[in-house]
Amino acid sequence: MNPQDEKGKIWFSGKFVDWKDANIHVMSHVIHYGSAVFEGLRCYDTANGPATFRLMDHVKRLFDSAKIYRMQIPFSEQEVFEACQETVRINNLKSAYLRPIAFRGYKTLGVDPTGIPIEVVVGALSWGKYLGDEAINDGVDVRVSSWTRIAPNTFPAMAKCGANYMNSQLIKMEAMCDGYVEGIALDANGYVSEGSGENIFIIWRGKIITPPLGASVLPGITRDSVIRIARDMKYEVCEQLIPRELLYIADEVFFTGSAAEVSPIRTIDRIPVGSGTRGPVTEKIQRRFFDIIEGKVKDPYGWLSYVYNK
Ligand code: PPE
Questions:
Q1: Does ligand 1 have an atom closer than 6 angstroms to the CB of 119?
Q2: C-beta atoms surrounding 4 within 10 Å
């Protein structure tokens, strides 16, 4: 953890506590069964002060994830929204990565979660470039994972659940051990799914393609942002199954995510993607995305929520 972050305050089920006091018991349900749903989003330092990116969409996805797991969050969407904005304010942050999480807390063990209290926490971290400082401009080297993404009707991919990230850890560690930055997982049918913590897009013959929700992907909020930006830039965008080999012959490939933002991929399994550097369409979409989130151009989508209501 960053020592500066450790001086901050964390919103813990309705009140702010010091970082060191934001603790739970080791016999909490979440520790044993991974029973948490969470979000990750960024707050950007704009000309009008700090602004969270698509905060209400993240809050809604948190509540959707909880609903899938029959978890009753004891706060309203508006209260969680405000808790996130207030976490930025109370810690006097300009930019941050926010981590709202709801989990089954301490009462009894045993899989049956009946009666176990749901805790909700919002913490703020300073998080730099997710895939390395050079990633945004130069692109990253990735492999296709030998691990398959969580299969339909096992772990629901549309829920951003803590336990899903055991699968992500397998994908990420395998890639890193072999000298890659990230892995691309295929779905249970062998089609391209997503990275351990990112959605994926390819550009092929002038079309932008991303796997559909049925390919075990998280409905990424950055994914949705890029689809809307690209369509408004008059690109043809489709959600379509992607066979593995299309990764190798695509003109451009990039990842999207709150942490990864828009990160180009320059090689896959050591095969160069296109020219082996960031492609021109990726660069144009990146520029538009960063211009909006940093408040450099007018935000036509209403995606920024200014923390100080400017
Ligand atoms: N797929 C997965 C599996 C995933 O974890 C993320 C976000 C995405 C797609 C992109 O979703 P979105 O952030 O809404 O555009 N991964 C989060 C956590 C990463 C982590 O290491 O922790 C993130 O980017 O915040």
A1: no
A2: 10
Q: Reply yes or no on domain 135-293 having CATH 3.40.50.720.
A: no
Q: Where in the chain is the domain with CATH 3.30.470.10?
A: 5-125
Distance in Å, CA 196 to ligand 1 centroid: 8
Which residue has the least CA distance to atom 20 on ligand 1?
197
- For the chain, give every residue range classified as CATH 3.20.10.10: 135-293
Which of 42, 258, 285 has most ligand 1 atoms within 8 Å of CB, for mutation? 258
Atom of ligand 1 nearest to the CA of 222: 15
**Six-digit token string for 91:** 């810690």
194 Cβ inside 6 Å of ligand 1: yes
Residue owning the nearest CA to atom 9 of ligand 1: 198
Is it the case that residue 204 has pLDDT exceeding 90? yes
Give, using CA atoms, the residue closest to atom 3 of ligand 1.
197
**What global pTM score does this model have?**
0.97
Helix runs in 139-220, H state only:
164-177
Chain centroid offset of residue 137 CA: 20
pLDDT at 133: 84
Alpha carbon 259 to chain centroid, angstroms: 6
CATH placement of domain 5-125: 3.30.470.10
Q: What is the pLDDT of residues 39-95, one digit of tens each?
A: 999 999 999 999 999 999 999 999 999 999 999 999 999 999 999 999 999 999 999
The encoded tokens of residue 36 equal 């948490």
Tell me how far apart the alpha carbons of residues 222 and 131 are, in angstroms, rounded to a whole number: 15
Determine the distance separating the centroid of ligand 1 and the alpha carbon of 159, expressed in angstroms.
11
Residue 31 CB coordination number (10 Å):
18
Say if CB 121 and CB 11 are below 8 A apart: yes
Give the phi and the psi of residue 78 in degrees, each rounded to 5.
-65, -40
